[in-house]
Amino acid sequence: MRLSGLFAFLAAGALAVPRPHNEMLDNPSFRAVGVAFQKTDFKGKSIQLVKATDGNHCFPVSEFPWQSEAPVNIFSVQICKPEKCILFAGLNCNNDPDYNSVLVEGPVDVPYFEDADQGFRSYICGDDVVSIQTKYTIHSKDHNATTA
């Protein structure tokens, strides 16, 4: 599926203000696994973190045209499902050594990230992401769906 078609398809099921467990996207092509926030402590603008069911897809955070309030960078996340996501400081899931990246294993609430002064600008969620080397990993912990 082409990237423009991907965004159009996601737009049909996306919410303006996503919150964990509240009408999360779930259809044959895409599944929401959590929420990403513009600020630490689950504050600011937010988007649903989605997983493509047909494989790993890179999602640049700034390219969510159906959400006028989409964050530019991610500074906190809540992963509500037992899924794995990698957050990248680079725009196109760039895992260049000069960029920070972190593997987050859900379910977990991450109110802030160490060594992420600029936040994260793209992400991939899926089963195969563990094969991508990251700077560090955040493992499953308690998850509170009412935090946001």
UniProtKB/TrEMBL annotation:
In the UniProt record, does the keyword Signal occur?
yes
What top-level branch of life does the organism fall under?
Eukaryota
- Signal peptide range: 1-16
Identify the keywords attached in UniProt to this record, alphabetized: Signal
For this entry, the protein name equals AA1-like domain-containing protein
Q: Which organism is it from?
A: Lophiostoma macrostomum CBS 122681
